Amino acid sequence: MAARDETPSARTLVLDVPDWPGHQAGQHVDVRLTAEDGYTAQRSYSIANAADGGRLELTVQRVPEGEVSEYLTGVYRVGDPVEIRGPVGGWFVWRPAEPDPVLLVGGGSGIVPLMAMIRARKAGGSRVPFRLIYSVRSPEDGYYADELRTRARDDSGLDVAYVYTRRAPRNWPEPPRRVGVAALNTAGWPPELAPLCYVCGPTGFVETVADTLVALGHDPARVRTERFGPTGG
Amino acid sequence: MGIVSPGFRGRRRPAGATELPPGQYLTEDFPVLSAGPTPRVPLDRWELLVTTETDQQYRWTWSELMSLPTESPVVDLHCVTKWSKLATAWEGVSLDALLGGVETAAEYALVSSYGGYTTNLPLADLLDGRAWIAFRYDGRDLVPEHGGPARLLVPHLYLWKSAKWVRGIRLLVRDRPGFWETAGYHDYGDPWREQRYQGD
Lengths: 233, 200
Ligand SMILES: Cc1cc2nc3c(=O)[nH]c(=O)nc-3n(C[C@H](O)[C@H](O)[C@H](O)COP(=O)(O)OP(=O)(O)OC[C@H]3O[C@@H](n4cnc5c(N)ncnc54)[C@H](O)[C@@H]3O)c2cc1C
Hints:
The complex is a heterodimer of chains A (233) and B (200).
Chain A: E1 2-7, E2 10-16, E3 28-34, E4 40-46, E5 55-61, H1 69-75, E6 83-88, E7 102-107, H2 111-123, E8 130-136, H3 145-154, E9 158-164, H4 181-187, E10 196-201, H5 203-215, E11 223-227
Parallel strand pairs in A: 7-8, 7-10, 8-9, 10-11
Antiparallel strand pairs in A: 1-2, 2-5, 3-4, 3-6
Chain B: E1 25-26, E2 47-51, E3 57-61, H1 62-66, E4 74-78, E5 83-94, H2 95-99, E6 108-113, E7 118-122, E8 132-137, E9 140-141, E10 151-153, E11 166-172, H3 179-182
Parallel strand pairs in B: 1-5, 2-11
Antiparallel strand pairs in B: 2-3, 4-5, 5-8, 6-7, 6-11, 8-9, 8-10
Flavin-adenine dinucleotide binds at residues 28, 43-46, 59-61, 63, 65-70, 109, 112, 202, 226, 228-231 of chain A.
């Protein structure tokens, strides 16, 4: 077991799970915490790594006042036991045998299941072209920054584009903005290629991106979404 | 009791607070769970279609639905992603009113939505004042994110059974799993028995 900080407010936990049955990229687990008096709380967390024996990586964003995320990013120490149930989910998944080009659009912690797909693509020897559009508030908020830089260089057929919503890096060619038609047109795929689209992040982000993809001509049945909640209107 | 997580205290609910189903926590927000983009359905093309096991069809246009007597249930919602929201106020037409004149010997229903979503449940769970076609929430027309113009509301089961953007109900002699049910979620989905996944 191990833990590493991804950003000042997000931490990756590496867990060893005995008898783990394996998982598909995009699936999640339910984490259940139990206090000494038996009180429990459960939340879902996406699996960040490609299947790798009994090793499981979760990346948790600290939510202020968050019951479970504050514990997992703060109090929790490497080696402490946690209860896990899963893998869960059979729709928001990508399989290396899939032949179509893929568009991944992630907002904030919504990158986690998409990163599992990027990792599974390489691990599974797939050559299907992948494009990732990753929306973050500021440069410090991007998860897996070094790994994404390296993979964009070495995993052939993987393109990575960032969109900054609050503050862009120095000399960035455009002011901060949200993922919209412009980003999806320039860094996505044309709808005629019929890519599989995976959109993940906070509810409002997912609503906007999925609506825009449909408006651009993507088949709604090929746009798969995962809403991390909870801020839904 | 499960394995104790050292140092975990959690956010307890005050004594005397309404009991929640196992594994659920309370939220004041109204989160959104859907598998894909939100469909937009114009009212002049909206219809609800009930098809029986003998392929008899019953249809309601939007204005026909609006002419039926409505009810205003106030119900607790329980989502399989763990949140619960208490005392939500809806307006809709009871399925007793819609299915009352439908001749059928079916025991199961497969509900379908604009956008292609499906979910299954026993027909009995749609009857006896326990299910509605809802089109107003909290005093306002139901917004598309939450299933507008109209959604099924079956609050005694996990919320994925309350199909948003409802379009059809197929009555079946044999149970047929819907979208999430095919993807490993429970066939029935009773929150009080914590029937989240297959095998629960
Ligand atoms: C399928 C699925 C996969 C998920 N995968 C991940 C993942 O990989 N990484 C990850 O960090 N989270 C993920 N989440 C979100 C996660 O399950 C929790 O909702 C989140 O960690 C907050 O829980 P909490 O107990 O800390 O906060 P709570 O105690 O539940 O909430 C505290 C306050 O924060 C607000 N809040 C809750 N969640 C969020 C949020 N996500 N963003 C902003 N405000 C919030 C609440 O409205 C409340 O006001 C996933 C959710 C789902 C449904």
